[in-house]
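hey so i finally got around to running the thing on that chain from the lab meeting. sorry it took forever, my laptop kept dying and i had to restart like 3 times. anyway pasting the input first so we r on the same page abt which one it is
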Amino acid sequence: MADSADPKYLDKRTAERYLRSGQLDDKAYERHIKGLPDVAEKAVPVETLMLGDVDDIDEDDEDDLEDEDDADEQDEGGADDNDEGSASA
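ok and heres what got predicted. didnt touch it at all, straight out
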């Protein structure tokens, strides 16, 4: 097999199947994995609410969720009202 493996064979979700069938070489796959950069510092925590947890939200949590939604909408809309007011003053 060539030095650079076809990217479709390197996908973590399918690599094992291609390794078993012989379409991907073990050594080529190991070289690929070792060559990947460490991007752990880019990771962000994700908080997820399950369907049963929705009833457990108190009013403070609902306010926080609304504040986050408002901030997201402002980010998508470009400049917010505070920037426009300070520019004319």
